[in-house]
Amino acid sequence: MKRRRRDRSSTAGARRRGPAPSLTAVARASVAWAAFALATPALVGGCSPAVAADEREAIVLAGPAPFEVKARSEWPTAAWPRARPEEVGLDPEALARLEDYLFARHGDDVDRRGQRTNAFVLIKDGKLVAERYARGYTAETPLLTWSVSKSIGGTLVGLAVADGKLDVNDPIGKHYPPADRDGVREIRVVDLLRMSSGLDWNETYETSPIFSSVMAMLYTAGRDDMAAYVASHDLAVPPGTRWSYSSGDSNLLSGVVRGAIGDEAYAEFPWRRLFDKIGMRSAVLERDKAGTYVTSSYLYASAQDLARWAFLYLNDGVWEGERLLPEGWVAFTLTMAPSYYDTALTPGTMDDNPGAQVYLNLGDPKRDVPAPWPMAPADTFAAQGHWGKSIFVFPGLDMIAVRLGDDRRYACDIPGNEDRCEPDRTKAYSKPYYLELLMAAVKR
């Protein structure tokens, strides 16, 4: 099938509002920055930070995935094997209730309220057991994924590491010249992967467009060269000391990958090393005007193809017997960003357990922060995007659930959404309710 690619910079989007630091977070950041500034009194004038990127503790990629990897006799490169729900231990009636919820209509395409699921795919034991589409979409339709793109972008980094072009401990200035300046060059690849760059960045959307860094990057001042726009920001705190949701980190990461592998190889890299290998034939990945892939937001793919990405991770980065991702990459990806534990959380960020461009289900017992999805197993992880887009992966259940929506009004049980939500969670998208219904279909 002919590859489809779109090169445009006018379409944009992202997952949702990022964290707004509390006074505690600001205080912690101020202390860290004060120590940083004292160590580097002429930072603004041109001194490097006292702790350079290559002097911090190095990340070592090693070991198996943190879950049992199943032996496979079938692979979905050409097509997903299929099975009936009851053949893989799922309750068909419970699945029917889930689909009824996901595809119920409580609004119209004018007011854009109510449940707005466009695609749902469920994989169990390596087999497709349920799928459904709405609004004219089909199994072949590449749908915009918004910030689910970040997780695929993180995978491209892993592939560059596997090729020996990049190391997660590298300072980004080594590969990306616009970032080779005082302070910013000390950001490591791992800092970007974990959204811990320390850059002064405001991830707000419709609620604060004038002051939004991400809106400027995607739509106005930065849209022609998004990675360079992000690299032009100064540090707010030392790299690696604070977690802050950032589409900027993701697009700067894309620029680093481009610099590491070179322009000629970069053009075909996502297809040659990932999409073609695992059968993601629907994939469309847009570039900005400078030619850098916009991995914060602009991947289009079918629900079945997004499940293929998840299946790669379920198999510890191995596909049809070939190791694509480095050994230890999945374990690294599913490790909580250390800076998360030192970052004050708000109601809108309580369900963000950041790994490396994915989200985990761990919580923080030391701070009495609960796991974000208590109804799901602790090993659950996810790629998530704006307006109800998600890939949930349940390793212990050998299960993948892809839901692509266009929800403009969520149920009120999603934290941080209280001012514009639907009180009845059966009449709008609720992530907790979705997961409850999905888990109810699993026969224990």
Description:
The protein is built from 11 helices and 10 strands. It has 444 residues and is an alpha+beta fold. It has one domain: Beta-lactamase, CATH 3.40.710.10. The strands form 3 sheets. Strands 2-1-10-9-8 form a 5-stranded antiparallel sheet, with helices on both faces. α3 runs parallel beside α7. The radius of gyration is 21 Å and the shape is globular.
Strand arrangement within the widest β-sheet reads 2-1-10-9-8
- The CATH topology name reads Beta-lactamase
- Estimate what percentage of residues fall within beta strands: 5-15%
Could you spell the SSE succession in H and E letters?
Answer: HHEEEHHHHHHEEHEEHEEEH
Overall residue-averaged pLDDT value: 88
What count of structural domains?
1
Largest sheet: 5 strands, antiparallel
- In CATH's first tier, which class applies? Alpha Beta
Q: What would you say the CATH architecture is?
A: 3-Layer(aba) Sandwich
| Shape descriptor | globular
Alpha-carbon distance between the termini? 41 Å
Supply the key terms:
27% helix, 10 strands, 3-stranded antiparallel beta sheet, globular, 444 residues, alpha+beta, Beta-lactamase, 11 helices
Summarize the topology.
Blueprint: H1 23-39, H2 92-103, E1 117-124, E2 127-133, E3 143-144, H3 148-162, H4 189-193, H5 213-219, H6 226-231, H7 247-261, H8 263-278, E4 284-285, E5 299-301, H9 303-314, E6 318-319, E7 322-323, H10 329-333, E8 381-385, E9 389-394, E10 399-405, H11 431-440
Task: Explain briefly what this protein structure is.
The protein is of the alpha+beta class. It is built from eleven helices and ten strands.
